[in-house]
Amino acid sequence: MKDKNDIKLAVLIDADNIPYSNTKGMMDEIAKIGIPTIKRIYGDWTKPTVKGWKTVLLENAITPVQQYSYTSGKNATDSAMIIDAMDILHSQKVDGFCLVSSDSDFTRLATRLRESGMLVIGIGEKKTPNPFIVACDKFVYIEIIKTIEPKLEKTKSSIPTTKSAASNTQIDSISEEIINLLETTVNDLSDDSGWAFLAEVGNLLIKKKPDFDPRNYGYLKLTPLIKSLNSHFEIDERDVENTHIKHIYVRCKHS
Predict the structure, then answer these.
(1) Exposed, middle or buried, 210 (CB in 10 Å: 0-12/13-18/19+)?
(2) Which residues of the chain have pLDDT under 70?
(3) How many angstroms separate the CA atoms of 117 and 90, rounded?
């Protein structure tokens, strides 16, 4: 698998179904995954409903693609974005796609791209229908980018690591379903003594639930989230020989 610094991404944005606020935060999020070599946004730029995008396109080097709405009630933007995606796929210039939309109409596109061996990242609002979410390798909610990312620009000493540090309006509670998912995943990867390497746990969680992200629950990383559930899990931080690195292992507490 390629290093994330070598993964070339085509970023395709649906202007009709995504808010333009915090576009920089969204592009910074994409940069964590790979290199956005193609950045296009689709919409009918003659409509006043998308005028807010115009001021941020130049700042983020995003190419606008004009798509007129030929028929009332039909979303021509979707068709243009899908056609472009398939053209880019066959050009073999990228390793993956980032589809930025909250529209379930892109479910089949995400599935088709993955069938062709592409990495598919979805970004959208929490209202995004589940079929589109699970069709992606990973799905990130715009709301958590809005809530958490601006705080990261402060000094390291002020970086939030606990739930109380984030805005309560955008944070999900940790349900029994999520706790069960965590416990099952730890057990899937545990050795004979019950310990599982936390980095592997994080990777498997995303495979099981593409929209899993500690930031959904107010934590920047998986480790503090697991530590907050100390009645369910225990943590073991192990030194790596001749380095300052610690490998973190997790084990379920059995009643």
Answers:
(1) buried
(2) 1-5, 69-77, 146-170, 255
(3) 12
